[in-house]
Amino acid sequence: MTSIARHSLLSHLRSVALAMVLGLMGSGLAQAANPSMLDSFKFDTPTFIHDLPFAEHKVVLQVSENDPERWQLVLNNAQNLLDYFGQEKVRIVVVAYGPGLLMLLKDSPVAKRISSEDAEGVEFDACYNTMQGMAKKLGHLPVLAPPAVIVPAGVVRIMQLEKAGFEYIKP
Questions:
Q1: Predicted TM-score (pTM) of this structure
Q2: Domain 31-169: which CATH class?
Q3: How far apart are CA 19 and CA 62, in angstroms?
Q4: What per-residue confidence (pLDDT) applies to 1?
C-alpha cells in the first residue's frame, strides 16, 4: 500500500470513528446532502461539479476568515470574473477552511448569494478537516449550504488547483 493510499485510508477511518463517537452514523450525516469528494479525491486529477468544457481561465479564491465583509468581497470578485469573461469561459472555485468555513454554512448571511453564483457555475468547496474540528465542538457536523462541495482539506484543494494551472487569489 502506498503512503498516499495509507493516508487516505487512515483519514477515512478517522472520519468514520468521529462520526461513530458523535452518534451520527444512523442519522444521515450532515454532509450527506452536499456533493462530496471525500472518496474520489485524487491530487493529480482535479474534478469539479460544474461542467465547463470551454473555460479558458481558472481561478481559485481562498476564504479563511470569519468576516462577512470579506465574504462579500470574495463573492464580488467571483461575480466580476463571471461578468468580465462570461460564465462559460471561466472556472471559479472558492475554497473555504478554518474560520472561513462559516461562510458556507446553511444559515450564513451570504448563503443566497452562494446559491446564485453556484447557478452561474462557481464551485464552493468546504474543508472536511475544518468540519471535523467544528463537529468536536458542536457535537455534530455543521450543516452546509446546499451548493457546498466537501473536499478532504481546503489547503490541499488549493494546492491541487494551483498545480492544475489555477490562478490563486486571496481577497
A1: 0.82
A2: alpha beta
A3: 27
A4: 46
